[in-house]
Sequence to fold (370 residues):
Amino acid sequence: MNSKTAVQNILKNTNVIINGKNPWDPQIHNEKFYSRVLSGGSLALGESYMDAWWDVKDLPEMIRRIVKARLDDKKIGIRKLIIPYLKSKTLNLQKLNAYKIGKWHYDIGNELYQKMLGKSMQYSCAYWKDAKTLDEAQKNKIDLICKKLKLKDGETLLDIGCGWGTLLKYAAKNYGIKGIGLTVSEEQAKFAREINKGLPVKIEVADYRTFEGKFDKIVSVGMIEHVGHKNYRKFMEVAERCLKENGIFLLHTIGSNESTTGPGDPWVDKYIFPDGKLPSIAQLSKASEKLFMTEDIHSFGPYYAKTLRAWHENFERAWSELKKNYSEKFKRMWDYYLLMFVGTFEARHNQLWQIVYRKIGAKDVYESVR
Fold:
């Protein structure tokens, strides 16, 4: 059996046909593609796309079909996983490299993120209920978080993984809070300090593990995905230590359907989010045990696919300006990143949760909002 036939046989239950006529069928430009993917798995699939060895009109649908069929590196490219698997088992990578993600991903240029994310500068799932545009949906998400936290004038808010500081800005202006934001990105910190000038908001470049203080409310949006399964308990302990007795802690995170402890997708790990790992509900529950009560879980993963499509549209529209700073290979990498994740969310392989925690012993009923 030649390598082309072997690849098509692997895809037989997906209705993805090599060089087929459907918009989700990949068109192969380099015959070495087949042997490369057979030996390299999902890492080679992404890298060969970056190298323009293949194209497809509807990448999200191709990925959705592959994910739904549960094709993964257990079938192909298993050798590529051995070293990352051993590293993830024997090392606490996220603790050793706490600032790596900031330098690798978030410091690559504020202009890129401004063009892609829009006015909100929110790099997390938007809340599309009653919204027609990305900016409206992101404003809805921020306000939803503020309402779930039940913020009041004069309260203190800690934002663990504050991004570009727009949530703190909104909460300070609209709810009267005093806030501190933590980030591991120097570029994010510069931007966040600038937009929060004149507001009672402080931005610190810091590892969450080293932070001390007491706050009425705590929020963490899109941060725990970088924490790693070995550190979930420590993350929860820090939140519990920093939260006042009657406070509220809201965690907004991408989630996995499975509790795994090995490495994440090898292409995503190498090019986009080094040492990233998606938590499961079971892992988060175990990490918060005896520290917090779980008051509310709100799942809206399909909204992330819509958010990613909006980001990609913005990125495409801005490419004529952005290309002065980035290569064509970078563009193909970024296209693949955004559209591949659309497919995983549309397959419901990835989830999005907002979880509200309170310290054990709170007597009043927590009434959530949607």
User: Anything to note?
Assistant: The radius of gyration is 21 Å. DSSP finds 15 helices and nine strands in the chain. Confidence is low (pLDDT under 50) at residues 77-94.
